[in-house]
Amino acid sequence: MDCEEVMRNGNNKSGVYVIMPWRPRKRTLISDTLKVYCDMETSGGGWT
């Protein structure tokens, strides 16, 4: 899960969210979660 997916799930306010990053080369989720700031306003939103 990343900020773009958080936005698609209906959370459209910028703020701190807990995400589980994607590991593209192995096509798996990284097991650790991270707290990140998601910008839901700039250029359509969904940015970390």
From TrEMBL:
Pfam families hit by this protein: Fibrinogen_C
InterPro entries: Fibrinogen-like_C, Fibrinogen_a/b/g_C_1, Fibrinogen_a/b/g_C_dom
Domain Fibrinogen C-terminal: from-to ranges: 1-48
Lineage of origin: Eukaryota, Metazoa, Ecdysozoa, Arthropoda, Chelicerata
Name of the protein in its database record: Fibrinogen C-terminal domain-containing protein
Top-level division of the source organism's lineage: Eukaryota
Entries under Gene3D superfamilies matching the protein: Gamma Fibrinogen, chain A, domain 1
NCBIfam families (UniProt xref): GGGWT_bact
